[in-house]
Amino acid sequence: MDEPALIQSAQRGDLDAFNSLVLHYQDALFNTALRILGDEDLAADATQEAFLSSFQHLNSYRGGSFKSWLMRTVTNACYDELRRKKRRPTTPLEPDAEDGDEMDSPRWLADSTLTPEGQAEADELEHAIQHCLDHLPAEFRAVVVLADIQGLDYAEVAAAIRAPLGTMKSRLARARLRLRECLQGFAELLPAAFRLQEERS
User: What fold does the segment set 106-201 form as a domain?
Assistant: First the structure.
């Protein structure tokens, strides 16, 4: 994909070029929104909103990492959604699973190569990770999702959240610490390398 050429064409109003960029980045943006919001429908809405906003403001893109520029739009859309959710909290009309519990893992995360037991463990671990992410403040959740799940470098994360590099690093360190502390409550689900030293001895 010739990204610079597609961006230039899209900036001139070429919808096909913009759609090519959407297809390339839609999974990354959706996954980011899903981790921040913890809800597939809200994540889909935030992703759509992010792409609409990015198309409307495409001429404000001045170079650098296009991915981090897009991540900023989806992060902002997620913050907007979280603010709306705080103003009018909602309760689902029906549970996600038949037993009344939340669904352990989105269907798209299923790994067809896992045994049923392995898939069950993976679902439990996924549920634990999302549970711990959901309990982080929004600004901590955003940096850890962008850095540790989406793999953006520190400068890209700082650009995406529009914060100084030092602020971003501080938030990330605190977010990782809180995540680690939370995940110790699910230690039996974690690979041995991620457990605290005393639990491995």
Answer: Arc Repressor Mutant, subunit A (1.10.10)
Q: Is the dihedral of CA 104, 82, 138, 32 positive or negative?
A: positive
**For residue 37, what are the CA distances in angstroms to 3, 15, 44, 169, 194?**
28, 29, 10, 22, 25
Beta strands (DSSP E) in 1-160 are: none
Residue 62: DSSP 8-state = -
Distance CA 151, CA 153 (A): 6
Sign of CA dihedral 143, 148, 153, 156: negative
Residue-range domain boundaries for the chain: 1-89, 106-201
Alpha-carbon distance of 95 to 103, in angstroms, equals 8
Name the pLDDT band for 46 (thresholds 50, 70, 90).
Answer: very high
* pLDDT tens digits, 58-90: 999 988 889 989 999 999 999 888 888 766 544
The fold of the 1-89 domain, in CATH, is Rna Polymerase Sigma Factor; Chain: A (1.10.1740)
Q: Are 38 and 134 in contact (CB under 8 A)?
A: yes
pTM: 0.69
